[in-house]
Design brief:
The chain has 231 residues and is an alpha+beta fold. Helix content is 16%, strand content 28%. It has one domain. The chain is built from 3 helices and 13 strands.
Amino acid sequence: MTARNSTPEDSAADDAAYDSMQETTQAPMPATQVPHGSQAGGGGPFQSAPTRQGAQDAAGLILSIELEYYRDNGQTVRVKIADRSRMIEVDKLMGKQRMTSVKISPPRGFLFPLEAEARFDWSSLGASEPYIDRDGNVCVLWRGKPYKRRQLEAMKNEKKKIDLPDAVKYSRGANDFDPPEIVEAGDGEFKYVTLAIFKGKGRMEPQQQLSDKDFERIKQKLITAEANRAK
């Protein structure tokens, strides 16, 4: 599936309006949600990684592609493939080992259709499966940091020309080591970094959807974790 990085059309005013709203967190398994078939340049969510290299023959045909992945501890792993169509498959395989081909998330995060969120396979981003933290928030781990699920309700204000759809965002508080281009302003002095946002409509790639078996397993894991926390 291809992910689209947020564009200038996703205005700062829209983000500010979203972030001025009260946060609510809830389990990410609403009845209708399927892994993102998002919108972005092709080649999967990591297409922009500068470490993807292709060896070419005299006719300009790619003979092999070298993919570079990063572990949470900073180690680098290189993988060579001969078939470009397997890039998403390899992304998922490496992602299940918590490796990703990008070192930082894009500004405003990866953008996927809202319908993709419930069955989204987070291994395609090199992230962990969703889990419940000690405060009851649904989170995913990416590059060693937790990103909390936030439910953003639709908001419309004709006077301010704001028309925001329902959305789900996975984000965390920013720190002093984050590159400034990925840090977003929130309420007051709070700043945050977004890993992914699900909103609107778009194409969903089958390769980035959970199988029925994995979907049910993760859903039950979250239900059990929340029940245990409530005891």
